[in-house]
Design goal:
Helix content is about 35%, strand content about 20%. Among the domains are: about 110 residues, Roll (Luciferase, domain 3); about 120 residues, GMP Synthetase, Chain A, domain 3, CATH 3.30.300; about 140 residues, Non-ribosomal Peptide Synthetase Peptidyl Carrier Protein, Chain A (Orthogonal Bundle), CATH 1.10.1200.10. It is built from 23 helices and 27 strands. The protein is of the alpha/beta class. The relative contact order is 0.08. The radius of gyration is 25 Å and the shape is globular.
């Protein structure tokens, strides 16, 4: 079989499906712990063994077999934790195609599920009992409520007696990996058992994983890197994995490194931004006690890899046992299951210096490191066994020569068969052939790069996909939100693209104004754009420019030329009517003020008025808004607050109050006033967080508190809040 690459392994893979794999691991390694979940609320650690996971999968699978036929889809809608993993394998055991989506946690989350729901046409929705109950009374749109909701945590263990072996083989689709929660028709990559097992074998061989391997993952489990790397890979190699909630990592990045240190983890990683966040945010005093010497594979991927990030992280954590050779830059995409290239392991990353201007013209010209125009490019490793990587001219479809930049094409058993229900998109992406030799079919990745000495260097994107903090954004979706944000903005004449801001990829937007709108309130328009993008896409905007009609470059067929627009914007050639730019200073670095400029050393007694004043000042400072524009009765989403803003403010508030808070506290109450009233009441647990604790202690709000706060809103406040909800409903935003 394709996936059996390493016959020397102490635990060879068994069977041709993931069901075969887990069953074998359960029989051979039954009582070994495979997953441990550290909750973000200071609660008890949750663990499961190989045998326990197998039995839970059988029980859930047995129940699903009574409700759905093999091949039908089930939407997986879970918060971080072990219930998701058991449900994922329960689907596999039932022969049902799993469709993981972003987990709940905010009132607006489920709107992002609607496009995926409509595209995948699931028969069932799987979740927990708590979220099933909440769904029926609050945040879930009608289309999702029309399907049966199954609370998997209420399925009894004896249901496994009803389980029957599914009639599946390696060619059957295991799950659909949606590449975007976009408002356009989303694309669900059909990943077969064969794809997954082959890529698992590649990862295992590249990482050098064994039964002794111990991983730590905070990456979302509904995305390919978290699910395939953090769930399937540990089972494949017979190892173990500790899971953290993504929000807990964002709230306290040192938690990730503390867990690696305490668990003596050998494998962990994430996007470039995660390493950058740790290097910038973890203070020297918080690094004391870390021991990262066990960390053998620190994989970096999912977005452009920056040499300065690797340098900064190494400098910060080398004194605590981290070795530069642990860095494992890699390249991959969902359409190729996960990893395409990477490694070799325990070798320092390869970094070369090339001329930036030449690279923009798709040429590779080496230059000295001292050259002011030099661009440092990090190699994404070597191609892996069974994979073919070819660099192709995207216009002529001919293979590029050495020293030429072209589109990265991939071929091999890890490449999926296509997009679910999207035959035209499948043909365009998965059925590419070289023009002269007709060799193929290849997967067109849409990414640009070149090969040198067997190493792949990814240099940019042929397509206009925007990647920020490891998340993918389609510019069309952001542009649609911008055009609808304020009356007087010209429909069809908006360009969203990424720019380099202080060494990090950031979002910029250029929008034309209607030619007949002479009296447009540009200040309100700019604020409305920021608010719409943050509310719907949860991404920070770096710059917005309003320009006159006719400025944006388009093709003869009317398509937006985003790359040309980006060049004109950066060169200053555009005639700008009004502009907003974020300060390059990181808002998270702003000093937390509590009257005397110091962080509280213990639980602080505050009134609702004190809290309203602090929150008003902090939100205005972080979002760079005039203080007069931050009203205590305005819903948070109206401020243009992204998820990162909310987490950052929660962290600052926690430090100021001297007691722990949930990283999603800002989203649990609709306004500053409502949040202040709750915080001013006696806390459930005001003990300060133990620095050495593996997780933060988080005050969990009373589940009915939100409803009570809603009832306390004035008529005007309620009308304003309802208008926001209605707008989200109309737009189908996140």
């Amino acid at each position: 079989m394709h996936h059996e690459l390493d016959s020397s392994s102490s635990v060879p893979p068994v069977g041709e499906t993931l069901v075969d794999l887990l069953r074998h691991r359960a029989f051979a390694m039954g009582d070994k712990q495979v997953f441990c979940y550290l909750p973000g609320d200071g609660g008890q650690e949750l663990a499961i063994t190989y045998r326990g996971l197998h039995e839970r999968a059988m029980a859930i699978g047995g129940r699903l077999q009574q409700l759905a036929s093999p091949g039908e889809r089930a939407l997986l809608l879970f918060p971080p934790g072990l219930d998701f993993i058991a449900s994922f394998f329960g689907c596999l055991y039932a022969g049902v195609v799993a469709v993981p989506i972003a987990p709940p946690g905010r009132k607006r989350f489920a709107w992002s599920a609607v496009p995926i729901f409509e595209a995948s046409k699931p028969s069932l929705v799987l979740s927990t009992a708590f979220h099933c109950e909440k769904a029926a009374h609050s945040y879930v749109p009608t289309p999702l409520l029309g399907k049966p909701w199954i609370a998997v945590d209420t399925i009894e263990s004896d249901r496994r007696c009803a389980f029957r072996e599914p009639q599946i083989d390696k060619r059957h689709t295991a799950f659909l990996q949606y590449t975007s929660g976009s408002t356009s028709v989303p694309k669900g990559v059909m990943l077969s058992h064969e794809n997954l097992l082959h890529n698992a074998a590649l990862i295992r061989q590249a990482f050098g994983n064994t039964t002794e391997s111990n991983a730590v993952f905070w990456l979302p489990l509904h995305h390919d890197m978290g699910l395939i790397g953090g769930v399937i890979q540990p089972i494949y190699c017979g190892g173990a994995c500790t899971l953290l909630a993504p929000a807990a990592f964002l709230q306290r990045p040192v938690l990730w490194l503390e867990t690696i240190s305490r668990r003596r983890a050998t494998v962990s990683g994430g996007p470039d931004f995660a390493f950058d966040l740790c290097a910038r945010k973890i203070k020297p005093e918080d690094r004391e006690g870390l021991d990262l010497s066990s960390w053998e594979v620190a994989f970096v991927g999912a977005e452009p890899i920056r040499a300065q990030t690797l340098d900064r992280f190494e400098e910060a954590f080398a004194p605590y046992g981290f070795r530069r050779e642990a860095f494992f830059p890699c390249y991959g995409l969902a359409e190729a299951t996960l990893m395409v290239s990477g490694g070799p392991r325990m070798t320092p990353p390869t970094v070369i210096h090339v001329r930036g201007a030449a690279l923009a013209r798709h040429r590779v010209q080496d230059t000295a490191a001292s050259d002011p125009a030099a661009r440092r490019v990090v190699a994404c490793g070597t191609k892996l066994p069974g994979q073919q990587i070819t660099i192709v001219d995207p216009e002529t479809l001919l293979a590029c020569k050495d020293g030429e930049v072209g589109e990265i094409w991939v071929r091999g058993p890890s490449v999926a068969c296509g997009y679910y229900g999207r035959p035209e998109a499948t043909t365009a992406a998965f059925l590419a052939y070289l023009a002269d030799t007709r060799e193929g079919p290849f997967l067109r990745t849409g990414d640009l790069g070149f090969l040198r000495d067997g190493r792949l260097f990814a240099t940019g994107r042929l397509k206009d996909l925007i990647i920020i903090r490891g998340r993918n954004f389609y510019p069309e979706d952001i542009e649609q939100s911008v055009e609808r944000a304020y009356e007087g903005l010209r429909g069809g004449y908006c360009a969203a693209f990424s720019v380099d801001g202080d060494g990090v990829e950031r979002l910029a937007i250029v929008q034309e104004v209607e030619p007949r709108r002479r009296n447009l309130d540009t200040h309100r328009a700019l604020h409305a754009i920021r608010r719409a993008v943050a509310a719907r896409h949860e991404v920070e905007v770096h710059a917005i420019a309003l320009v006159e009609a006719g400025v944006l470059p388009k093709t003869s067929s009317g398509k937006m030329r985003r790359s040309a627009c980006r060049e004109q914007y950066l060169s200053g050639e555009m005639k700008i009517v009004a502009e907003w730019k974020a300060d390059l200073e990181d808002p998270e670095e702003l000093e937390e003020e509590n009257g005397d400029g110091r962080v509280s050393q213990g639980p602080r007694r505050v009134t609702a008025s004190d809290l309203e004043a602090w929150l008003t000042e902090r939100i205005a400072a972080r979002l760079r808004l005039p203080r007069s524009h931050v009203h205590v009765t305005t819903p948070f989403v109206e401020f243009g607050m992204s998820s990162m803003d909310a987490v950052g403010i929660a962290v600052d508030l926690e430090r100021w109050l001297g007691r722990p808070l949930s990283p999603t506290a800002i989203y649990n109450y609709p306004t500053i006033s409502a949040l202040a009233r709750w915080l001013a009441s006696p806390p459930v647990d005001s003990r300060p967080a133990d620095k050495n604790s593996p997780v933060l202690r988080i005050d969990a709000p009373d589940p009915g508190q939100f409803d009570r706060e809603i009832r306390r809103l004035t008529a005007d406040e309620m009308e304003q809040f309802a208008s926001v909800v209605e707008e989200m409903s109309r737009q189908g935003g996140q």
